[in-house]
Amino acid sequence: MFAPSWISATETLYLWCGGWRPTAALHLLYSKSGAQLEAQLPAFLDGAGLRDGDLGGLDAEQLQAADQLQRRTIRSEREIDEAAASAQESLATTKMVELAGGGGAAAGQGMEREMEAKAEGMRRVLEMADGLRMDTLRAVVALLRPPQAVHFLVAAAELHLAVHDFGRRKDAAE
Q1: What is residue 57's DSSP assignment?
Q2: What is the domain count for the chain?
């Protein structure tokens, strides 16, 4: 659940609760915006205005909305981190230790029940993380004008594909 089989070993280094960390979308927005703004600077210094169709043209209201979204997303990520830690720590309860050392069919059945309950806790964490990823992505796209949203989504796809391709090549070389 937390490390899909189709991703490379390199990609697993960047996973957070089964996927990308939602604040990464905001970091991508800021990075791409900065790069596109920097590319426009020579023309801007020559008297041309900034283009507003790409991420270099984010206005103050959009930047403020992105900042507020980032703050909310960080708080939500922390809540999910705490839920994940709690679910992971539940593996080392007294009951689990007793079942692990018990042996026999009864202990095996007890272990099966306990592990199913623990897996359900991790499944809830994944659902929370997936919900936050979707909410964050929707909110980022909503604060952008349509051409900017296209630039953002293209940048996200390019980054994802580049990391995936790099990881696959690295795995094949090892």
Answers
A1: G
A2: 1
For the stretch 137-152, pLDDT in tens is: 999 999 999 999 999 9
Quote the pTM value.
0.83
The boundaries of the domain holding residue 171 are 24-58+147-174
In a domain, 103, yes or no: no
Q: pLDDT tens, 83-136?
A: 999 988 888 887 787 777 776 777 778 888 888 888 888 899 999 999 999 999
Does some domain include residue 110? no
Contact in structure between 56 and 41 (CB atoms under 8 Å): no
Where does residue 21 fall: left (phi above 0), alpha (psi -120 to 50 degrees), or beta otherwise?
beta
Which residues have C-beta within 8 Å of that of residue 58, sequence separation ≥ 6?
Answer: 33, 66, 144, 148
